[in-house]
Every structure is written in C-alpha cells, then in structure tokens.
Amino acid sequence: MRIACPYCGPRGVDEFSYLGDATLKRPDPAAENADAAFHAYVYLRDNPAGPHRELWQHASGCQSWLVVTRDTRTHEISAVEYARDAAIASAGAE
Amino acid sequence: MAEPLVARSALRPHVAPLASPAGAPGVTLVEVENLSLAALAAFKGREAELTDAIRAAFGVELADGPKRVTANGVSFLGTGPGKWLAVGPAGTDFSTLPAAVTDQSDGRSVFRLSGPKARETLATLVQIDLHPRAFGPGSAAATHAASIAVQVSQLDDAPTYEIVCFRTFAATLWRWILDAGLSREISARHAG
Ligand SMILES: [Zn+2]
C-alpha cells in the first residue's frame, strides 16, 4: 500500500504510523452524559466495510498528521488531507 | 579541568572503513565536515517573515516543498510543511532567523555520494523513486535508508546526492553505503 503524502508525494506504507478513526470527536467533559460519551469515545469503534476516514502520521517522512480516506475492503485510497486542514474544515462546518 | 569542546567526525576507521577501487571509481562516498546545521520551523502564520529574512540574510529563495535551494554556499532543505534543514559552512549563524531554530551542527553527519553509479547505489538503500523523472537536482526527501532516518537531496547531474543522518547512526549508515557500493567500484574517504 502506498499513501500519497500531500507534502512528500507517494510513499510506502512502512513510512507511516496508524492511529485510527479520524471521525471521533472528544466529548464535552462537562456534559450530563459525559461518562457514557467518554466510554464510547475511548473504547467503542465501528468496523466499516468500505470507505473509512482514518489518521495516519508520516512518521518516517515529513511527520505530518494526515486524514486518509481508505476503503477497508480494497485498500483503495480516495483522499489524503492534512489533519489540520480536515480539523479546520470540520470545525467550520459546525 | 574540563576539556574544550572540539568538533570531531562521528566516523573512525575501525567503524567506518575506507575503500579505494583498483580502477576508476563508479561511486565516491565522502563525509562533509565543518558545517553549521540548524532545524527551522516557521512560527504559525509567519512563514512569509521567515522567507523574507532568509532572502535578506543569505540571498536564498526558500521553497515551500521537498526541495533543496542553495545560494552563496548556504542550502535549505524542505523537511516538512513549514520546516527546513539549513546547511552552511561552519560559523554560519541561523539563530537570529524568525523561526524556531534548533542547532544541529553537533547532531548530524553529512555524506555525499556521487558518480555514475551513485544513483543505483543509493537506490539499494532508500525506497523513494530516484529516477531523474521523479528526483533531480534540487529535489529533497525526508525518508529512511536501511531503517535510518535521513534527509536525501540531489545537488547536480553527476549525480551527486547529499545524505544527512543523526550522527549516532553515521558509522552504521556509512557501512550500509559501503556494502552497497563494493560491487560498484566505490571509493570511500573520510577524515575521521
Ligand atoms: Zn510526508
């Protein structure tokens, strides 16, 4: 598998570290249901068969954090963005 | 009494053997010493200020990408978004640039690999595409060679490559390159 880093260009997957689901949002600790929300945030994961947005770091390259949209059935990658840009875009959408 | 600090190569003959081929070298490996190195990270939103300061101080037009730009003997290698490795002759002062500046002069070793077989020698060690179509003079890449973190850049069409690594790994990387070059008439010299 190769990931097209927006800075470095395409690189082998061995240069990247996987973190996991990029769609999770840290719950509000002051909310009434904070215990249940944090349990879900820390432990519960979907296991989708299909496109999945996930965090990777280009650890052996430019060290950027990336959001990679990967089809879990085929490893086909349809998008790679800087995690910072993705976070700003998602904050702006709220 | 404390010993004065003296800049010394990380290479010694017993850990980094020399090599000289019988005929014309296919590839030449040398260590570059007496350099000043610094890691630069632009402050958020102040990239233009850093670009202006580098233009004024060194006459270099900073590139935003995995490129190597050089003027007046001072080079800047793109290592990541908003990050560069600055390389100049010993004594070059990068500390006043408007960025997070971390001196690396005693932390890195710098090698140059050149000659007609330099590309195929380096290609045995890194996984990036070194074909001239993908990587040429002025290209730079942060990657790994034999699992050692390196900054690779190309200087000219000889081709000449510069390889920067943390100095703790210098002797190991040197031996990897030497092994790769032994079947390619490598000449390897260092002053350590
Ligand atoms: Zn990268």
3D structure, described in words:
By secondary structure, chain A is of the alpha+beta class. Chain A has one domain: Folate-binding fold. Chain A is 22% helix and 35% strand. Chain A is built from 2 helices and 6 strands, in the order E-E-E-H-E-E-E-H. Chain A has a 4-stranded antiparallel beta sheet. A two-stranded antiparallel sheet of chain A has the order 1-2. In chain A, a hairpin with a 5-residue loop joins strand 5 and strand 6. The longest helix of chain A is centred in the C-terminal third of the chain and has 11 residues. The radius of gyration of chain A is 15 Å and the shape is globular. Chain B has 2 domains: 92 residues, Gyrase A, domain 2 (2-Layer Sandwich); 68 residues, Alpha-Beta Plaits (2-Layer Sandwich), CATH 3.30.70. In chain B, the strands form 2 sheets. Chain B has a 6-stranded mixed beta sheet. Chain B has a 5-stranded antiparallel beta sheet with strand order 3-4-5-2-6. In chain B, strand 8 and strand 9 form a beta hairpin. Chain B is α+β, with helices and mostly antiparallel strands. Chain B has 3 helices and 11 strands; from the N terminus they run ββαβββββαβββαβ. The two termini of chain B are 25 Å apart. In chain B, 16% of the residues lie in helices and 36% in strands. Classes of the chains: A alpha+beta (94), B alpha+beta (192). The interface between A and B is medium-sized, with 13 and 14 residues. Zinc ion binds next to loops of chain A.
Distance N to C terminus of chain A: 33 Å
Instruction: Assign a percent range to the helix content of chain B.
Output: 10-25%
Major β-sheet profile of chain A: 4 strands, antiparallel
Number of domains of chain B: 2
User: What is the makeup of the main sheet of chain B?
Assistant: 6 strands, mixed
